[in-house]
Structure to design on (251 residues):
């Protein structure tokens, strides 16, 4: 069980519904602390969300099937299987956005979760208002309308913006939504150097907690998926002290 956040008031967040504009959005809260879950449920419902609850990892996996949430708020410290294992099982079949909750501030925990496919992290203690803001940011990324039918072909891969697919030869590459958006950002301007801050703003859309490290984690995942090497890159090159650029030649 993880430590509770410090409550900062449970009154309805002023203007939250108009900011999010996502009616009937379902959020599953997975935490074994009843007091915390009660507080988050009240705050999220006041913000216009439909809320489901689970207190264990196995309960969360069952609820995922029956409730079919649009986003999951998932605590790491559950009494049966931990949040990492729940995330691993979820990612085997679904790209539903996940925000992890943790009382542990160590970078390694955040990196593990991000590598496994978490979309964001919130460290306890936190304010409910912050969590609602992060939920809104993640959901807005997940609901971006499809781009007009367009394919960008490079020497080493092809990216289809309409289908949101990436292929290497005849093989379709599995990327998370964030990883696809990050690769698309780099591919939109081949040879251009993007700073980490520019990629955070363009892909995450706001000042993300992870700063440089979250970009590095997802770039590493993209390289592995594409079969690219950081030491001898063909697709994404690191510009030391600055950021990244796409070096694969357009066709």
């Amino acid at each position: 069980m993880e430590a509770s956040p410090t409550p900062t008031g449970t009154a309805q967040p002023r203007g939250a519904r108009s900011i999010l504009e996502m009616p009937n959005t379902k959020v599953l809260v997975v935490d074994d602390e009843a007091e915390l879950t009660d507080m988050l449920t009240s705050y999220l419902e006041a913000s216009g969300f439909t809320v489901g609850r689970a207190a264990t990892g196995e309960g969360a996996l069952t609820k995922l099937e029956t409730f079919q949430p649009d986003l999951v708020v998932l605590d790491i410290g559950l009494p049966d299987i931990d949040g990492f294992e729940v995330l691993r099982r979820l990612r085997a079949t679904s790209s539903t956005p996940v925000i992890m909750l943790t009382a542990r501030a160590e970078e390694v925990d955040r990196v593990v979760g991000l590598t496994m496919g978490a979309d964001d992290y919130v460290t306890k203690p936190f304010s409910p208002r912050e969590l609602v803001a992060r939920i809104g940011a993640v959901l807005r990324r997940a609901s971006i309308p499809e781009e007009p039918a367009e394919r960008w072909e490079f020497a080493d891969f092809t990216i289809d913006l309409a289908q949101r697919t990436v292929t290497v030869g005849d093989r379709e590459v599995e990327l998370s939504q964030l990883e696809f958006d990050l690769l698309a950002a780099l591919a939109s301007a081949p040879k251009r150097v993007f700073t980490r801050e520019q990629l955070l703003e363009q892909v995450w859309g706001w000042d993300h907690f992870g700063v440089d490290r979250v970009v590095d984690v997802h770039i590493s995942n993209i390289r592995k998926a594409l079969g690219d090497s950081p030491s001898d890159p063909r697709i994404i090159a690191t510009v030391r002290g600055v950021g990244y650029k796409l070096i694969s030649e357009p066709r």
